[in-house]
Specification:
Number of strands of chain B: 0
Distance between the termini of chain B: 52 Å
Oligomer: heterotrimer
Helix content of chain C: over 70%
Mean pLDDT of chain C: 94
Strand content of chain B: under 5%
Order of helices and strands of chain C: HHHHHHH
CATH superfamily of chain C: Cytochrome c oxidase, subunit III, four-helix bundle
Radius of gyration of chain C: 19 Å
Largest sheet of chain B: none
Structural class of chain B: mainly alpha
Distance between the termini of chain C: 46 Å
Mean pLDDT of chain B: 89
Helix content of chain B: over 70%
CATH topology of chain C: Four Helix Bundle (Hemerythrin (Met), subunit A)
Number of helices of chain C: 7
Strand content of chain C: under 5%
Low-confidence stretches of chain B: 1-5
Radius of gyration of chain B: 17 Å
Number of domains of chain C: 1
Chains: A mainly alpha (601), B mainly alpha (96), C mainly alpha (198)
Largest interface: B-C, 51 and 48 residues
Number of strands of chain C: 0
Order of helices and strands of chain B: HHHH
């Protein structure tokens, strides 16, 4: 059945199992949700522009702040990172595909449905309003009796499942499908950060899965996991959430760090400084990330032992992170630097992430954190690492790999203008927030009195947001313009170091005509020089007849299975009758599973 | 085909292990039943843990074939078990 | 179920079949799933504010029998795989059937236990102890149910596809899942039931 599906048109995209197409779908969807997250931010900043504003109500504001955080984390940064994992992993390791092509498609469809479910809260007029971390027991049945919170609980549950399935896929792909000669310490650094990210996802997601089930049960079935009146503990939610939540922040930053490493090396024309130290630091960060979660809970009365130990762990984790900063600077040092747009984003990452890291290491001291907790100082910190850090790196990655994906460069002029709009706008918004925090402005308030001394900073922050928005518009213009009119790009358009640059731009569906063989790190780059250091022709992949390559068949069963999961997740919205919707969803899942299993792959 | 491992336990080994697993479970039940031992949790706790650990190692090592497979699988599973125990020990201590 | 040649299509760096490796990675993930549920149970087992307590309600005899049952189903599982790998379709089918039977019996014991507990006043929402107990053992039970469905499907497929169908790797993968579900029960049996007085 699968073999007779069309090869072109929309059906071919819906049934695709090609990791490159799935990567593109992830990126397009992530950028779509970026618009949502961005507009939510603009609305919040407009409300906070002046004191005692009534642009939006407090209730709406709470919904916006919840959805902004949730969308940016789960529906923008994570899926955009997944777009890079999808597109690049097989190409960078010299593989024809990922380990499980249909499961790859499944992850995407589950993610799309989860994102739509979360944002359906707008259509239903019931926004989740408990914050992106949804603390109990505000989010429990007693204080949040309407279904808004359920959109968050079930939306996050569904997208979490997508990430878990994808993580298993990439973990096995990286360990099992590398080309000949590519031992682990010869893999591109981006593949290492991808690998550790998948480990973090695989091990941390189940914890929040359980927490979300407990919260769903409290809300739908009357259990009391987080209800003191039934013997439960409110603090249990915080622990379980942050046992996931802290590895989650490394899940958000590690892929970006990998992208930065690749871009810096390429545009300095130097190898990444201290490659093996970078690998060990990445592993150390991943491991230690499981031991520091309660630094998000310093003000909850953990007791002196817990405070001291978590504080020590948090300070310790700053060490491998700091090592990376020095290695990036050393990569640039003495290099032949060209400031292309991707390079601008990568270099700015070093500075912005360092600033975010400095404010972060300040919070690692509990007495200081008692002042920072729930203030704008924390908002400044995490936006510096997540936006100045992860998001800037991801944009750099888009500019860097866009030519490979589409065969056309993005426009450099528009790119540079966008970059500066982002830098100015971002810093104008978030730098003053350090002051706001120190001056006592709490987080998550929808308005403030005019005599607190906060007015100027808030006005500046909002102006910065509008400048950023301009940059965002320019980005989308650039994206669309470049798809049709961008300067043509060849295979090795940036004079790159890794295997994806041996392929045509865009690559053939089968990836590699001839299975690559490597003998060292940055093998492709090294082979561009002969023994005396003179340039030789780069060893690109030849063209062959595609019919000689076996490809996995397309399939619509992943879509069916994902739809069944969505139906299962929608049951709790309909109270008692919802159980039938969930049962029907289970039935669709079963149908999807059997169809998939018996299909010829 | 049969698998990439170099070795395989025999059917006799599988049945022997089955017998041992049954005997251990029976011993656990007996220990539980003995009233006096219940007050000796200092004895009961480590003994029961050791017995369960033995069952676990037998099922994982032989039935799940870890003993004969590539060491990487043992590391993947072992690392997860280790990290789980570390994380939740810290959690339970923090909730005291 | 998936044609065997697919997994073997590409030689792997580690020599481990992709599907088998993937199941082990899933198992690693599930350690954290059950770890969370077990930790939550341990924290809450004595914190119930009403309803029966663990010491009053657990029946070690029945539980020990269900432990035997699941262990024996694991034995059947390795024998089914052994039969398949040695191309003995009779043994493959027989022992796979025994695995299914073992799983169904276990679910029967669970059903008995749950209905007995509810009858004696411990429901899902009676107390935090009850909620934590049912969430943990219920989750495990659902995993058993999924396993029973999986093994039944393999058995049925064997009859449909005839006596030349020997799904070595898919059966091994199903077996790993089944054994893991047994391993989780070994931990639950000890930590929940045997430790009830500790």
């Amino acid at each position: 059945m699968a073999k007779n599906l069309p090869q072109t048109g929309i059906i071919s995209w819906i049934t695709t199992v090609d990791h490159k197409r799935i990567g593109i779908m992830y990126a397009v969807t992530a950028l779509f949700f970026l618009l949502f997250g961005g507009i939510e931010a603009i609305l919040m900043r407009t409300q906070l522009m002046v004191p005692n504003n009534d642009f939006v109500t407090g209730s709406t504001f709470n919904g916006l702040v919840t959805l902004h955080g949730t969308t940016m984390i789960f529906l923008f940064v994570m899926p955009l990172s997944a777009a890079f994992f999808n597109y690049l992993t097989p190409l960078m390791i010299g593989a024809p595909d990922v380990a499980y092509p249909r499961m790859n498609a499944l992850s995407y469809w589950i993610f799309l449905f989860g994102g739509l479910l979360l944002n359906f809260s707008f259509v239903a007029g019931m926004l989740p309003d408990g914050g992106w971390f949804n603390y109990a027991n505000l989010s429990g049945p007693k204080y949040s009796p309407t279904h808004g919170i359920d959109f968050w609980v079930l939306g996050v549950q569904v997208v979490g499942l997508a990430s878990l399935i994808a993580a298993i896929n990439f973990f096995v792909t990286i360990l099992n499908m590398r080309c000949k000669g590519m031992t682990l310490l010869k893999m591109p650094i981006f593949i290492w950060t991808t690998l550790v990210t998948q480990v973090l996802l695989i091990l941390s997601l189940p914890v929040i899965t359980v927490a979300l089930v407990m919260m769903s049960f409290d809300r739908s079935f009357g259990t009391g996991f987080f209800d003191p009146e039934m013997g439960g503990q409110v603090i249990m939610w915080q622990h379980l959430f942050w046992i996931f939540g802290h590895p989650e922040v490394y899940i958000l930053i590690l892929p970006a760090m990998g992208i930065v490493s690749e871009i810096l090396a390429t545009f300095s024309r130097k190898p990444l400084f201290g490659y093996s130290v970078m690998v060990y630091s990445t592993c150390a960060i991943g491991f230690l990330g499981f031991a520091v979660w309660a630094h998000h809970m310093f003000t909850t009365g953990l007791g002196p032992w817990a405070q001291a130990l978590f504080s020590a762990g948090t300070m310790l984790i700053a060490v491998p992170t700091g090592v990376k900063i020095f290695n990036w600077i050393s990569t640039l040092w003495g290099g032949q630097i060209s400031f292309t747009t991707p390079m601008l984003f990568a270099v700015s990452f070093i500075a912005m992430f360092t600033m975010g890291g400095l404010s972060g290491v300040m919070h690692s001291s509990p007495p200081i954190d008692y002042q920072h907790q729930d203030s704008y100082f924390v908002v400044a910190h995490f936006h510096y690492v997540l936006y100045g850090g992860a998001v800037m790196a991801l944009f750099g990655g888009i500019f860097y790999w866009f030519p490979k994906v589409t065969g056309r460069f993005m426009d450099e002029t528009m790119g540079k203008i966008q970059f500066w709009l982002y830098m100015v706008g971002f810093n104008l918004t978030f730098f003053p927030m350090h002051f706001l925090g120190i001056q006592g402005m709490p987080r998550r308030i929808y308005t403030y009195a005019g005599d607190q001394g906060w007015n100027l900073w808030n006005l500046m922050a909002t102006m910065g947001a509008y400048i950023t928005a301009l940059g965002g518009v320019l980005f989308f213009v650039n994206l669309i313009y470049s798809c049709f009119n961008g300067k043509r790009a060849g295979a090795d358009c940036w004079d790159g170091r890794t295997l994806e640059w041996t392929l045509a731009s865009p690559p053939p569906e089968y990836n590699f005509a001839v299975d690559p063989e490597v003998t060292q790190l940055d093998d492709f780059w090294v082979r561009k020089f002969d023994a005396t250091g003179n340039r030789v022709e780069p060893a690109l992949q030849p063209e062959i007849d595609p019919a000689t390559k076996h490809l996995p068949n397309p399939s619509f069963w992943p879509l069916v299975l994902a739809f069944g999961i969505l139906l299962l997740a929608c049951g709790p919205f309909f109270d008692a009758k919802g159980i039938w919707l969930s049962v029907f969803g289970l039935g669709v899942m079963l149908l999807g599973t059997y169809g998939w299993s018996y299909e010829e792959a | 085909m049969v698998g990439q491992d170099s070795n395989h336990a025999s059917v006799r080994t599988y049945w022997n292990l089955a017998g041992i697993l049954c005997v251990i479970t029976f011993i656990e039940w007996v220990i539980f039943k003995i009233e006096d031992l219940r007050t000796w949790s200092a004895f009961m706790l480590p003994t029961l843990i050791a017995l369960s650990l033995a069952k676990l190692i037998m099922v994982c090592g032989w039935y799940m074939h870890l003993k004969y497979d590539h060491k990487l699988l043992t590391y993947v599973f072992g690392f997860s078990v280790f990290l789980t125990m570390m994380t939740f020990t810290i959690l339970m201590l923090a909730l005291r | 179920m998936v044609s065997d040649h697919e997994g073997a299509l590409h030689a792997t760096n580690t020599g481990i079949d992709n599907r088998k490796f993937g199941m082990w990675v899933l198992i690693a993930s599930e350690c954290f799933l059950f770890g969370t549920l077990i930790a939550n149970y341990l924290v809450n087992r004595a914190r119930g504010l009403s309803g029966p307590k663990a010491q009053e309600i657990y029946e070690i005899d029945i539980t020990t029998l269900s432990t035997f049952d699941l262990l024996m189903s694991s034995v059947a599982m390795v024998l089914a795989l052994h039969g398949c790998q040695n191309r003995d379709v009779g043994k493959f089918r027989f022992w796979t059937g025994i695995v299914v039977l073992g799983g169904v019996i276990f679910l029967g014991f669970q059903y008995y236990e749950f209905s007995h507990f509810v009858h004696n006043g411990l429901g899902l929402t009676t107390s935090i102890f009850g909620s934590s107990f049912y969430l943990l053992t219920g989750c495990h039970g659902l995993h058993v149910l999924a396993g029973v469905l999986w093994m039944s499907t393999i058995l049925a497929t064997s009859f449909v596809r005839g006596d030349k169908w020997f799904p070595d790797v898919p059966l091994e993968v199903a077996g790993l899942y089944w054994h893991f579900v047994d391993v989780v029960w070994i931990v639950i049996f000890t930590v929940v039931y045997l430790f009830v007085y500790i």
